[in-house]
Amino acid sequence: MLQFGTASMMLDAVGSRALCVDSDESRNVPGFGKAKSVVVVYASGGQSHIDMWDPKPMAPDHIRGIFNPISTNVPGMQFTDLLPGMAAVADRIKLVRSMSHDDLDHGSATYLSLTGRYHQRISSNPPPHPSDMPTLGSILTRLNNEPRFVHDAIHINGPALVPFYAGPGQFGGLLGGAHDPFLIGDVTEGDTAIPGYDDSVELVPMRLQERLALKDTLDRENSGLFSNAKSKRNARNYAKAMELLASKNVREAFDLSTEKESTRLSYGMNRSGQACLLARRMVEAGVPYINVIFNHSNRGQDREPQDTDWYGWDTHNDIFYALKEQLVPRFDKAVPALLLDLEQRGLLDQTLVVCMGEFGRAPLIAIEENFEGTNPGRKHWARAYSVFFAGAGVKGGGVVGSTDRTGGDVVSQRYGPWDIAATVFNALGIDPHGHYLDPLDRPFEISVGNPIRDLYS
Questions:
Q1: Label partner for 60 (CA 20 to 30 A): which of 18, 25, 86, 161?
Q2: What sign does the dihedral 289-290-295-297 (CA atoms) show?
Q3: Residue 345 is part of which domain span?
Q4: 276 and 85 in contact (C-beta within 8 Å)?
Q5: What would you report as the CA-atom Rg of the chain, rounded to the nearest whole angstrom?
Q6: Does residue 376 fall inside a structural domain?
Q7: Which CATH number is 180's domain given?
Q8: 59: Cα within 13 Å, side-chain hemisphere
Q9: Is residue 224 part of a domain?
């Protein structure tokens, strides 16, 4: 049986128009409308920028860590020796080392990263709530009256768990469950990434139509049920399932078994790698917004220390082991593979790729007694961290912004998650300062940030 749905507890949207008024000025912003699709690779838990993207070799031992800087294929641009794969594609990316905000816990910082707005309970781990601001993809589905695929927003390898429960910021929120992104979980559970799909049984069109007619008859007899929110969600999920069954092209887009074995191996045969591969297939299928939750738990290693797929970037202790042996090898394989695959297929020029987490890690290396592990790690750090962009007009091979000698503070060109949100909508040809309407016809600004112009210069 096909099963669709998310962990959402959201209100149902009523029939109400969306609203987005582009200003003439928005069309003159660099990067406007350059992307047909956006792929967000979300590294949940907080990557250590000092140990990966922003090495500090001249800092004291208790700050710089054990990894050494290496040259990339861009003169003067250095990563640490954990990232030879990314170093080989540095000319395709624009690295922003000057991200900064004020939220210091995973749940609310994930919300901030995926909605572009602070949660009402800053530095906390709240559950999803119907009054939440919608995730970026949900805003897009609100603005688009004619989806280009089964859904205009797809989250892969989700939801993002904090560390074992879905965090806020990934759902439709105040737009209602109808605008939740289409959720794909573990794509390694079978060749076809559609949840519960069994292609061993195929209904001929006549039998399918007969079943649909029977369902319509039963629905008319029980019309009172659809005043119930859960019934409405079930009806939407059923409609999505039928759309998949009816379209061979849609089903094939989710079928990873059609890929060459060499291609699958190039991404890595793990949850993260195959999720990135499915993201490329979703770009080919025309999906406007794809969010790859690179690691589905921000700190699953506490429960499954022997399972690489469960490792998250929340490395309070044992940071150097976790980065070197569990986290970075699959990241440094899958993400460069995604960039090169998109480029070789002629898709990178029309796809904005964003790689980010919710914050960075602290300059000071120290043991934290309240966490698992016996070797030092780094605390949460939001005052300075790194993200990167590629494709869709982004001028690769450069660095935006800088941090001080310890990596603890931004010293130039400060940006925040709200600016990432504005950049995403700008790339898709949507004025980030336009508005959408919620189910009560209240207007909300699409973004409270500004597109990052430095990406295009």
A1: 86
A2: positive
A3: 25-197+254-456
A4: no
A5: 22
A6: yes
A7: 3.40.720.10
A8: 23
A9: no
